User: Fold this.
Amino acid sequence: MNVKRGSTTFLKVIIFLAGIAVLALCIWLPEIAVRDARVHPDTAYFLIPFLVCAYGFCIAFSVALYQAYKLLTYIEKNNAFSELSLKSLKIIKKCAFTVIILILLGIVSLKVLAKVTGGDAAGPISLCLMGILATSIITAIVDALQ
Assistant:
């Protein structure tokens, strides 16, 4: 019992730290967007789709973190196989699909921006694809747990 409590407490701390990182990202996003708009005023209108995708990602990720925290609380109370746990897993799965869709929209925006500016978006697109892979793995694990 003590080992399980220690493990769930550790995971709760990790979830809390990830939540702080997402909050910091949300706070710094407008500053980064304004700085980028000043440097590249001809493509400033492309920042709106990126900000929408980034804030949608942050919201979906925060909801998934909260549900994971609730799931760990259910595990601590020995309700790991309850209806509430199943509901949390379903919400996490929906959030993961939302994140994948938002990343795909970001890739489309990157491709359009690269066409307009004549730049190369291969690096950011490969990072986006790695994010999709990681999210897909999480979705598969959640599906297996259901």
